[in-house]
């Protein structure tokens, strides 16, 4: 999935699609490795999964619903199911990435800041890991420090540091004001909330 993010300019989020769209291409690869699929089966697994899991960005725009936190796990499930189907002989479109009306073609007409979307297909297969000593892209991933929306991390970290350094108790707090970037204020309901209780020991 990281490779798919890297080879496309701009990224899928910039033109209104959720990154679970890309998860649907990557999940069957992971599942297929576990199931020891053949090359042909793996190609079908990717085609099966991606064919039914394109995800518009609406799931994280405007009013948030249960689907916000479900689309990526759903793509993972679809990937596993698709790998199982492919193992049993079910076929999927082999041109789903760079063929007729595939990923590159569907998004290639998009204009972003006056430029058409572009894809480096070779980047998908350049320097693929071949041994435990190879570099794996997953090691370049950033991990969230807290199980909250990404834009909330900086304000929460600042609040926790302030609380700890000043030995603030919840009973002493009447109001918390947070200044965030404009993008963070476009989400409803508000993503910054005062915790009901401080972490234990604070």
Task: List the defining traits of the structure above.
202 residues, mainly alpha, 2-methylcitrate dehydratase PrpD, 2 domains, two-stranded antiparallel sheet, 4 strands, elongated
Helix and strand arrangement:
Blueprint: H1 2-7, E1 8-9, H2 20-34, H3 39-51, H4 71-87, H5 103-108, E2 111-112, E3 115-116, E4 118-119, H6 153-166
Antiparallel strand pairs: 1-4, 2-3
In short:
This protein has 202 residues and is mainly alpha-helical. Helix content is 35%, strand content 4%. The protein has helices spanning 2-7, 20-34, 39-51, 71-87, 103-108, 153-166; strands spanning 8-9, 111-112, 115-116, 118-119.
How would you describe the overall organization of this protein?
The protein has 2 domains: 2-140, 2-methylcitrate dehydratase PrpD, CATH 1.10.4100; 145-202, no CATH class. Strand 2 (111-112) and strand 3 form a beta hairpin. Mean pLDDT is 85; it is low at 189-198. Helices cover 35% and strands 4% of the residues. It contains 6 helices and 4 strands. The protein has helices spanning 2-7, 20-34, 39-51, 71-87, 103-108, 153-166, and strands spanning 8-9, 111-112, 115-116, 118-119. The two termini are 39 Å apart. It has 202 residues and is mainly α. A two-stranded antiparallel sheet has the order 1-4. It has a two-stranded antiparallel sheet with strand order 2-3.
Task: Give the structural class.
Answer: mainly alpha
Helix content estimate = 25-40%
Mean pLDDT: 85
The helix count comes to 6
CATH topology tier name of the largest domain: 2-methylcitrate dehydratase PrpD
- The strand order across the widest sheet is 1-4
Proper CATH architecture of the largest domain? Orthogonal Bundle
Number of domains: 2
Detail the poorly predicted runs.
189-198
- In the CATH hierarchy, what is the class of the largest domain? Mainly Alpha
Order of helices and strands: HEHHHHEEEH
Beta-strand content: under 5%
